[in-house]
Structure formats: structure tokens, C-alpha cells
Amino acid sequence: MTEERERADNDSPWKEILEAYFPQAMQFFFPQTAALINWQRPHEFLDKEFQQISREAELGRRYADKLVKVWQIDGEEVWLLIHIEIQAKPEDNFAERMFSYNLRIFDKFAKPAISLAILCDADSTWRPTEYSYNYPDCSLVFKFGTVKLLDYQNRWTELAASDNPFATVVMAHLKTQQTSKQPGERKNWKFSLIRRLYEQGLEERDIRNLYRFIDWVMILPKALEAEFWQDFKLFEQELTMPYITTGERIGYERGKEEQTQALVLKLLQRRVGNLPDEVRQQVQSLSLEQLEALGEALLDFSNINDLLNWLAVN
Predict the structure, then answer these.
(1) Per-residue confidence (pLDDT) for residue 3, from 0 to 100
(2) Quick check: helix, strand or coil at residue 24?
(3) What is the pLDDT of residue 63?
(4) b or e along 258-288 (b: 16 or more beta carbons within 10 Å of the residue's beta carbon)?
(5) Are strands 145-148 and 138-143 parallel, antiparallel or unpaired?
(6) How far apart are CA 275 and CA 197, in angstroms?
(7) How far apart are alpha carbons 21 and 17 in whole angstroms?
(8) What is the structure's pLDDT at 273?
């Protein structure tokens, strides 16, 4: 699997896991905000609303952002803007972008948003928390909540003891960072973290969701990947659980997604011509269900604008 493919897909596992376990994410990363929310009422992901305010999405920039409507305990509606900064290097205008999104939400929808950021980079000194300016007759200070995943390196025992799904997410992220040049060590940690899911006695759905995240971010060279699957197949055969083929199913699903993606990209090139890199990356970030829908829709495309319009609403 190429380095470019890894970058192209890097936000997708975060988006999927955030949607699957949003209350747990809030309770794990932002417990004070989570305490304001009535989790007995359903939350709603406002993807189309976010698309309307996201200039970066229009330009093909890649971030794992979620705009979510929740209800406070006092009965009032509130919107949460969750940004996951996955880029390898810190971004100079990050705080300004956080302010800009918050302002656009209020301007377009007349809704104040609680802005929160999860920082996945490896620079311990980069800790943006506010955007401000100050003039004699006008000033502004916009503060937003941040969590730095790097800080969990010193809390490994706490992570290992937690049953919150995002403890596993953070463990997988940290070990992926730490083993970037140690593929053998990464293979061992990948095996250990997935085995831990079974040892925790999780439901099959939770094992599959977290297994998929770990498998997606902890990418191995092909030879080590084959060794990993062989080792894990032996481990699953020793279990007496009714879902011992979890690994095989997820491996099959991943293979099917890659095949579908390659086919859709090939058909698009024939239909609308060569795709710009940012458009290709958008297509590569689609889920299997979205890829299948695009495979049907592209039959009616006549130029690249048809593709761009489809991506804007899906």
C-alpha cells in the first residue's frame, strides 16, 4: 500500500469511528462539554450544513470534521463542531480557520457552535487554543477546546484499563506514530491491540468497528501484512466465540472496497477525463456504500462538473 494511499484515506477511519461512538468520544475527550448534553435524546450529524460553510471542502482540502446537533440537559439545542487535525505538520492558520468556521455557522444558520479540536500531530509544542486580535477600539478573543493525543503517551496504563472505545483509538494512533520506521514492531502492536478487543469481551459490532479502525491506520508492508493475517487467523481459531471470522470478514470488506474504488476511478476517467489530484482524493475517501452509489450515478455524467456536483451533496 503506497504512502500516498495512506494519506488519501487517513481521515476516513476517524470519520467512521466518530460517527459510530460520538457520545463516547465526547465523554472521553471533552467530559465537561459532554456533561451538558442530554444523551437520552438522539444527536444528528449535519453533513450538508457543514458542506455549506466549508470552503476547504469545496477546494478539496481534507479534514475529518463533523458538525453535530445535540440537546442540552436544560432542553436547549446546541451545535458542536468537531475538528480532527490529522495533518502530519502543524498548520499556521489553524486557529483562524477554527474561528472562521464558527463564524460562518452563526452567520448562515444563526446557531452558536461549540468548537472543539482533536490534534493528532507529533509536535508537542503546537497547542492552538484561541484566535484573537486587538485594536484600540475593537478586540476579539475566540477560544476553542483542544485535546492533544500526544499527551496520552504518559497515560498508557489509564488507556489500557479503559473500556471507552476511544482509548483503543488513541492507543492505535500513538503506536502508529511511534512505529513509523519499525514495521515489525507495528505488526506486534497491531496484533496486541486487536487481541485486546477480544479479551475485553466486547460485542461483535464493537470488535468489528474498532478492528476496522486499527487495521486501517496501522498499515503494514505486504509481506508483514500477510504474516499478520496468518498469525491472527490462528488466534481466532483458538477462540470459542460465535464470531471467530471477524478478521476474515473485515479483510474481505477491505479488499472489496479497494476493488470497487479502482473500478469507479477507471470508469470516471473514461467518462469525464483525467481527475485532478484533489478530486481523486475525495473519491478515494468515500465509503463502500458511497462508491457503489457513485458507480451508478456516473453513468449519467457528461463532464467533471457532474462529478463535482455529486460529491458536493453526498
Answers:
(1) 39
(2) helix
(3) 64
(4) eebbeebbeebeebbeebeeebbbbbbbbee
(5) unpaired
(6) 40
(7) 6
(8) 87
